[in-house]
Amino acid sequence: MSKICLGLEGTAHTIGVGIISDDGLILANKFKMYHPAEGGIHPREAANHHAQHIVPLIEEAMISANISYRDLDLISFSQGPGLGPCLRTIATSARALALTLNLPIIGVNHCVAHIEIGRLTGTKDPILLYVSGGNTQVIAFVKGKYRVFGETLDIGIGNMLDKFGRFVGLRFPAGGAIEELALKKPQNFIELPYSVKGMDISFSGVLTASQNLYKKGKSLENLCYSIQEVTFAMLTEVTERAMAHTEKAEVLLGGGVACNKRLQNMIKQMAVERDAKFFVPEKGLCIDNGVMIAWLGLIMHNADIEMSVEDTVVRQRFRTDEVDASWR
Ligand code: ATP
Ligand code: FE2
User: Fold this and answer.
1) How far is ligand 2, taken at its centre, from the CA of residue 98, in Å?
2) Is the CB of 116 under 6 A from ligand 1?
3) What is the pLDDT of residues 257-268, one digit of tens each?
4) What gap in Å lies between CA 168 and CA 217, rounded to an integer?
5) pLDDT in tens, 180-233
6) 132 C-beta closer than 6 A to ligand 1
7) 20 lines ligand 1 (CB under 6 A)
8) N or C: which end of the chain has fewer CB within 10 A?
9) 3-class state of residue 72 by DSSP
10) 250-254 and 200-201 strand pairing
11) Residue 71 Cα, ligand 1 centroid: separation in angstroms?
């Protein structure tokens, strides 16, 4: 009999409920995103949003999975990294659910969940380029852990896109709108600072330069196009170097920015040139979602990892390389 897990995600602006069985069958993937009325994300308000929506979202997921609460074997939730108030809201819900249903509970690392759900696409041992709002990391599994080979020295790539978007009046999150604007012809390239330092990258220079050029009247479409070309080239460069260094022949994209077709194409082309394989999960599994949390929960549970309620305190700065990936 396969086991079924319900997973709760809520590290930042998205609250997600996912249900999956340990043979990889996705039974439900429901989410709701908090959109701040203006400005950036306010942690307390995002947490209130999650608290307001979690119960109806769980019910919606259960109906869509067409199972009863008795069919569940495990509750998992994202323990970190993320915003304190959001994490605590989700953890409290997970504990309440687990205690009420008398089920085991597991807190998982959000970043590792992005990787493990990607491995459902068929990749075995990839270099992962994890690109979201808050995170930008090149990760590989080496000697028992997911290790970070390169990362942003300042803001995450998605954060940079969203900040530029807000500056020019686009709705949050702006990544999708920037991708569309970038496609408008003619795609005239505007020089922007290319910033790769060893294996690390930085985006604040591109952001400031783009904002200044926009103020000076440069075309928004051309700026969107150029921002993508420059930052995605930076990401491709460090990803390729990590592949060469670790001699891995697969590359996997993850995180919300992985939805971007231009980024996918650049990484795919690099992979083809190296005789490597390229993988990207479907959109609903790239952005923050509960399925990846449920999936990692099951993997850990099946590897005999157990947690008591006391172990489920949230970890705002939970790093990818702190996780002992004993299941691999
Ligand atoms: P994390 O907690 O892992 O940092 P997150 O809270 O940022 O994740 P995600 O859903 O993984 O959440 O990613 C959201 C980001 O993805 C936003 O910054 C958004 O602008 C960006 N994004 C979404 N779609 C696209 C796209 N098509 N092109 C570029 N960026 C995109
Ligand atoms: Fe994420």
Assistant:
1) 24
2) no
3) 999 999 999 999
4) 11
5) 999 999 999 999 999 999 999 999 999 999 999 999 999 999 999 999 999 999
6) yes
7) no
8) N
9) coil
10) unpaired
11) 32
